C-alpha cells in the first residue's frame, strides 16, 4: 500500500498564511480499528474557518496544536471497513485529514448522495457551505419577497448559493465580489440582479444605484470596509446575518473595533451571528432542498479545483486572495494508481 502523505501545522501563521506554516510529512497508512473505516481521499475541502484553528486563541473551532495533522472535510473512497454501514468502494464524506488516507469512526461518516451531481459537490453546494447559505437565508435573514438582499463574497461557495436562494424567495439580489469576471458570473450565470466589483468601485456609491430602495437584508461574509459601506444603506428594521468576517481573519485583533454601530440605532436594525453547526438536526432538510434545486436548475454552482494534495496550502491561501470562483476544492484522487 502507498505511504500516507499528510500536512501538519508547522508553525502558527502571522498574518496571511504562507508555505512555511505547513509541512508535508509521510506516515504509515493507518489500520482501521473496531467500527472504524479507512478512507482514501478523493477531494479535500479548504475553508476560511481553518484560519481560526491555526491560532492559539479560541475560535469557534478548537485550535490545532503545532505539529497536529490538519483536518478538513473530505470526499473519499472506502478502502477497508470495520463498520456495518460501509463497504470497500463506497463513497463517503466526513471531517477527516489533509492526507492521502485517514481512518474515522464509521458513525462520523456519511455516504455521499448527490443525486447525480458530482461527488465533490458534497463539499460545496450540497455540503457545509450550501447548508450555511440555506439556513442563513431561510432562518436567520428570512427575507420577504420584494426585499433587497445584499451578500458579500458573493461569488464564493456560501455567497453564490445565498444569492440564488434569496432570488428564489423573490428578492432583489445584489452581490459584492472582487473582479469583473466574478461580477459577470453573478449576473450571467447565477441570476443576481446586480454585481458590484469592490476592487474597482466605491461600494457605497455603487449600492446607491444597485439598491435604490435601500438594503433590507445583508448576508455578511467578509466584514471590514465592505460591511461598513453596506451598513450605510440599511433600511429601517433591516436584518444582518453575520456568517463570516474573512477580511479580518489574518489580522491580529480587530484594529478599529466594532464599526458603524450607530447605523443600527438609527435603523433599528438587527444583527445576528450564526453557526451552521447549530442546525445539525436539520441538515437532511437542507441537503434535500439543495439537491432538488441543483437538479432542477434553480441553483447553479461552480468549483475551483486544484490538483494534488501538495497544493492544498496554496489553495487554502488563495481563499484570502480571492482566487476561487465558487467552492475551492483540492483533488487528491488523480495521484493514485487506478
Ligand atoms: P469563499 O468561497 O467565499 O472564499 C472566500 C472569498 O472571500 C474569496 O474568494 C474572496 O472573494 C473573499 N475575500 C477574501 N479576502 C477578502 C477581503 N479581505 N475582503 C473581501 N473579500 C475577501 O469562502 P466560503 O464561502 O467558504 O466562506 C465565506 C464566509 O463564510 C467566510 O467568512 C467563512 O468563514 C464563513 N462561513 C461561516 C460559516 C458559519 O457557520 N457561520 C460556515 C461556512 C463559512 P472576492 O474575490 O470576492 O474578494
UniProtKB/TrEMBL annotation:
Swiss-Prot/TrEMBL keywords: Oxidoreductase
InterPro entries membership: ADH-like_C, ADH_N_2, ER, GroES-like_sf, MDR_fam, NAD(P)-bd_dom_sf
Pfam families listed in its UniProt record: ADH_N_2 (PF16884), ADH_zinc_N (PF00107)
Lineage, top ranks: Archaea, Methanobacteriati, Methanobacteriota, Stenosarchaea group, Halobacteria
Positions of the Enoyl reductase (ER) domain: 18-330
Source organism per UniProt: Halarchaeum rubridurum
Entry's Gene Ontology molecular function annotations: oxidoreductase activity, acting on the CH-CH group of donors, NAD or NADP as acceptor
Protein name per Swiss-Prot or TrEMBL: NADP-dependent oxidoreductase
Location of the region described as Disordered in the Swiss-Prot/TrEMBL record: 1-20
UniProt superkingdom: Archaea
Keyword Amino-acid biosynthesis: no
CDD domains: PGDH (cd05288)
Amino acid at each position: 500500500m502507498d505511504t500516507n502523505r499528510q500536512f501538519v501545522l508547522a508553525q502558527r501563521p502571522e498574518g496571511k498564511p504562507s508555505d512555511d506554516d505547513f509541512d508535508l510529512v509521510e506516515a504509515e497508512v493507518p489500520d482501521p480499528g473496531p467500527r472504524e473505516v479507512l478512507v482514501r481521499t478523493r477531494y479535500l475541502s479548504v475553508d476560511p474557518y481553518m484560519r481560526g484553528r491555526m491560532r492559539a486563541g479560541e475560535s469557534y473551532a478548537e485550535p490545532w496544536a503545532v505539529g497536529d495533522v490538519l483536518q478538513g472535510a473530505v470526499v473519499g473512497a472506502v478502502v477497508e471497513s470495520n463498520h456495518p454501514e460501509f463497504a470497500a468502494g463506497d463513497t463517503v464524506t466526513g471531517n477527516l485529514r489533509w492526507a492521502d488516507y485517514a481512518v474515522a469512526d464509521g458513525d462520523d461518516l456519511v455516504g455521499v448522495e448527490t443525486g447525480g451531481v458530482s461527488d465533490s459537490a458534497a463539499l460545496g453546494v450540497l455540503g457545509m457551505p450550501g447548508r450555511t447559505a440555506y439556513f442563513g437565508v431561510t432562518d436567520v435573514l428570512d427575507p420577504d419577497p420584494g426585499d433587497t438582499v445584499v451578500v458579500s463574497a458573493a461569488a464564493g461557495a456560501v455567497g453564490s448559493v445565498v444569492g440564488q436562494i434569496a432570488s428564489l424567495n423573490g428578492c432583489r439580489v445584489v452581490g459584492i465580489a472582487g473582479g469583473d469576471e466574478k461580477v459577470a458570473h453573478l449576473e450571467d450565470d447565477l441570476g443576481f440582479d446586480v454585481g458590484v466589483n469592490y476592487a474597482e468601485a466605491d461600494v457605497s456609491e455603487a449600492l446607491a444605484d444597485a439598491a435604490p430602495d435601500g438594503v433590507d437584508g445583508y448576508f455578511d461574509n467578509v466584514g471590514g470596509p465592505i460591511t461598513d459601506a453596506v451598513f450605510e444603506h440599511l433600511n429601517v428594521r433591516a436584518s444582518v446575518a453575520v456568517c463570516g468576517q474573512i477580511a479580518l481573519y489574518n489580522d491580529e485583533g480587530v484594529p478599529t473595533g466594532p464599526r458603524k454601530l450607530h447605523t443600527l440605532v438609527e435603523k433599528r436594525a438587527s444583527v445576528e451571528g450564526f453557526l451552521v453547526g447549530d442546525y445539525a438536526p436539520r441538515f437532511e432538510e437542507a441537503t434535500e432542498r439543495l439537491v432538488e434545486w441543483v437538479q432542477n436548475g434553480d441553483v447553479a454552482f461552480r468549483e475551483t479545483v486544484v490538483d494534488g494534495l501538495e497544493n492544498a496550502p496554496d489553495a487554502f491561501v488563495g481563499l484570502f486572495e480571492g482566487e476561487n470562483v465558487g467552492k475551492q476544492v483540492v483533488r487528491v484522487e488523480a495521484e493514485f494508481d487506478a
